[in-house]
Sequence to fold (73 residues):
Amino acid sequence: MDICDKAKLLEQQQRNIALARALQRPPQVQQSINDEAVCEDCFAPIPAARLAVLPRANRCIDCQSIKERHEQG
Ligand SMILES: [Zn+2]
Fold:
């Protein structure tokens, strides 16, 4: 095994670790106040105040504003 093989192996291992971490949802998601009201982009709980205004809101304010900015071009 030469140094290139070692580097490749190491890179692969680190990618797997990073992927495993990325796939783990943050703990807050499980403690969401409103059963299913989590942002579909970042999985943050959507505040009740936002749901009161927009009952069908499926994104948090941050993600919604990013999306709207994208849609407006
Ligand atoms: Zn969000």
